[in-house]
Amino acid sequence: MIIAIDGPAAAGKSTSAKLLAERLNFLYLDTGAMYRCIALSVLEHKIDIYDESSLKDFISSFKLELKTVDGSPDFLVNGSSVSKKIRTTSISKKVSEISAIPAIREYMVSLQRSFAKNSNCVVEGRDIGTVVFPEAEIKFFIIASVEVRAQRRKLELQNMGEKISLKKLRHDIKARDKYDSERSHSPLKKAINAIKIDTTKMNINEQVNYMISHVNLKKIGKNNK
What we know:
225 residues, alpha/beta, Rossmann fold, 5-stranded parallel β-sheet, 3-stranded antiparallel β-sheet
């Protein structure tokens, strides 16, 4: 079974998807983190993403692995763990632009499908239910107010030692929403058959319990066929 979870930045996708996967004993795949990995590598190697030849050479040498360490996913780029480095503000500012490049998205979609192949998997991102796994058995689209999302992002950054104002975070989140929703290749949008969840006034346990209830209903429906 594939469970697709989409939605804008800081809506609560990653936390709820990870907990949902743990409770179901499914593989958890954070595709947003995957794009952060390639964005980090692009910036570190100063790749011109608009130069077709340079980008092709870069992609051919880029190797991304997913491992589980102490129950948490750990991404390795060319053999080195980058799970902490990809969460910085500098990566957040560039990931939308880099991930919008068609050649990068095509490569990453192929990689995402290979990671989830033959697995029960909770996959979260921005185009999972529409592009990566359009036939996913269950699809959720998670949203939250900009204010709440900014507060969540601020807390996440504080835990990593970064300080940034709520005003700046609100501005960045609105800008990213606009960019992700209006890009020509795989834009952020709700799949027609996705279940919308507004997490503005929900805690994490309420989010996960709500999703679990829908998963159980789906299982019951399959068993009765």
